[in-house]
Specification:
Elements (H helix, E strand, L loop, with lengths): L5 H11 L1 H9 L11 H11 L4 H15 L4 H5 L3 H5 L5 H16 L12 H8 L7 H10 L12 H11 L7 H8 L6 H10 L9
Helix pairs in contact: 1-2, 3-7, 3-9, 8-9
Length: 205
Amino acid sequence: MKPAYWEQACAELAGADPVMAELIGRYPGMSLVSKGDAFHTLARSVVGQQISVKAADSVWNRLEAALGGIESGKVLATGVDELRGCGLSARKVEYLSDLAAHHQSGRLDPAQWREWDDEAIIKELTSIRGIGRWTAEMFLIFHLMRPDVLPLDDIGLLRAIADHYHDGERRPRKQVQQQGELWRPWRSVATWYLWRSLDPVPVEY
C-alpha cells in the first residue's frame, strides 16, 4: 500500500531539487511499499547487511525456498548447517536466530511503537543482537513507512548520491547529511528514488 504522504512528498521534492524531479518523473506510478510483517522486514535487513542488493536477493531467495516461507518459527526449527547452506555467514545465522527468538517470545511488538519517535525505535531495535542502526532504519522505512529517514550507512544511497550529484565522487558522511537537509521532511522518499535509480527492481524489505 502506498504511503498516504507519497504524492505530497514527490511534489515538494520535485519542486525543491531538479535531480529529484527527474528521478520522480522517471518512475511514475511507483512507490515505497510495506510487506506488513515486522519479522520479515527485519530478517530481510539482517540478510542484506554489508552485501549488495543482488547478493542479498540471492541469499534471501535460497532461504525462502529452504524454509518454505520466512517465519520466525521456521527459522528456529532449521539447523545451523541448513541456514549456512543458503549463503548466510555464521554470524548472520546467529543474528537471525536471535531475532526469531525475540519474535516468538513476543518481545518484538511494533504495534506499541507507532507513537514513538524514530530515535526511540532505533534504540529499542538496536538492543537486539545483530540489529544495528542501518537495520533499524530499514525497519523505519519499509515497515513503519516513516517519511524522513536518511540511512547514512547505506552503500546504495551513497553511491546514488555520488552518481547523481557529484560526478561519481563519494562525499564524506557529513556532506551527505548536509545534502539530505534539502529533502526534509521527505528523506525516506528521496532515498527510495535514489535506490530505484540503481536497480530496475524496486528495493523491498
